[in-house]
Amino acid sequence: MLEQCVLQEVNYTPAADIHIKNIFTSAYVNSIINIINIIIIIIIIIIIIITTTTTTTTTTTTTTTTTTTTTTTTTTTTTTTTTTTTTTTTTTTTTTTTTTSTSITTTTTTILLLLLLLQLLLLLLLLLLLLLLLLLLLLLLLLLLLLLLLLLLLLLLLLLLLLLLL
């Protein structure tokens, strides 16, 4: 009986309670989806950074040149043999070429980082909405408590009137 009076006084319906619960559950599900999206974006950024590191190509060229000169001189009186050997060697020329493909990847990573920031902002807004809903729920509970106190006071007044009449 008292419960029906309170419900009629506030015009509170169980459907309103179900609606508030639905708002909370949908906000909770949306926050979980946003967190999953943020994790996916972070994984994509890590994959792009790993695949677009600087590529270094090393080319080694080795050139060897050998020159041999032999001179033989013979004289009639005395036999003289002169041998001259000249060796020239040139080796190892190393050329290093560095190729970097970062212009495309930097733009994609900046776009992904901006999307990540947008996701974080949406998540913060969603959390603020949840806090506002919690405050609203607390205010409704306080209102119900005040109405219950008023009803108790009315009942006490009725009891006092009954006691006075007797």
UniProtKB/TrEMBL annotation:
Q: Which positions, given as ranges, span the membrane?
A: 31-50, 111-135, 141-165
Q: Which parts of the sequence are annotated with region: Disordered? A: 59-100
Keywords on record: Membrane, Transmembrane, Transmembrane helix
The name this protein goes by in its record = Uncharacterized protein
| Organism listed in the record | Dreissena polymorpha
The upper taxonomy is: Eukaryota, Metazoa, Spiralia, Lophotrochozoa, Mollusca
